[in-house]
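step=encode ok
step=design start
structure_in=
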């Protein structure tokens, strides 16, 4: 036999082995891909179950109609399980809040930093000391020395801008994220 004819059978054997390797590699890759898709298909419902449900998402923001709230009136709405105080402040309350010396405050914030429109104050109605709900939203309830709110648990006093003025509360009443959608509608959250 010539050298040429001897090389042909070996080359054919080598190419059939290479073909088998390529087919085997393809089968390994295809099996791994199908396995990955299967794992993803099984895992997705579990991962998706960790997302908040639609009723929870619906509570993440609320819209409050301000049209029926008279000047001087205070309204409480519920947002994320907490009371939110919406106050249509009088000119006197606005003037008192703006005239405060910031150096005298425990948690110094100007009134302008706490409101978007002077006549409307929106604060979370939870005392920053131990989480009690301050009094002062209803007529006849004590409002403390500064005309805002009084926490009955440990006597923290808040002014007409929701800033802590006296007592153990370390911070002002929280101002939630909110935006005015128009003149009579505010979206909280």
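sequence_out=
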């Amino acid at each position: 036999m010539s050298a040429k004819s001897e090389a042909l059978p070996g080359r054919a054997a080598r190419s059939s082995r290479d073909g088998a390797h390529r087919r085997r590699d393809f089968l390994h890759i295809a099996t791994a891909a199908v396995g990955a898709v299967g794992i993803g298909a099984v895992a997705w419902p579990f991962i998706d179950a960790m997302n908040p449900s639609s009723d929870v998402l619906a509570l993440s923001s609320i819209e409050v109609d301000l049209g029926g709230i008279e000047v001087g009136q205070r309204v409480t709405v519920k947002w994320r399980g907490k009371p939110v105080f919406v106050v249509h402040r009088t000119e006197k309350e606005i003037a008192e809040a703006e005239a405060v010396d910031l150096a005298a405050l425990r948690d110094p914030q100007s009134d302008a930093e706490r409101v978007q429109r002077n006549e409307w104050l929106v604060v979370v109605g939870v005392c920053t000391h131990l989480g009690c709900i301050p009094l002062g939203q209803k007529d006849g309830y004590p409002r403390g020395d500064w005309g805002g709110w009084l926490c009955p648990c440990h006597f923290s006093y808040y002014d007409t801008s929701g800033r802590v003025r006296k007592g153990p509360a370390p911070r002002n009443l929280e101002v939630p994220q909110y935006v005015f959608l128009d003149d009579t509608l505010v979206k909280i959250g």
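step=design ok
step=annotate ok -> The chain has two domains: 1-51, 57-188.
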